[in-house]
Amino acid sequence: MTVSAPRLEPEESASLLQARLVPGEAIQIGRNPELALSLPSSSSVSRLHCQLSLRHDGTVWLEDLGSANGTWLGDQR
Question: Where are the domains of the chain?
Answer without folding.
Answer: 26-64
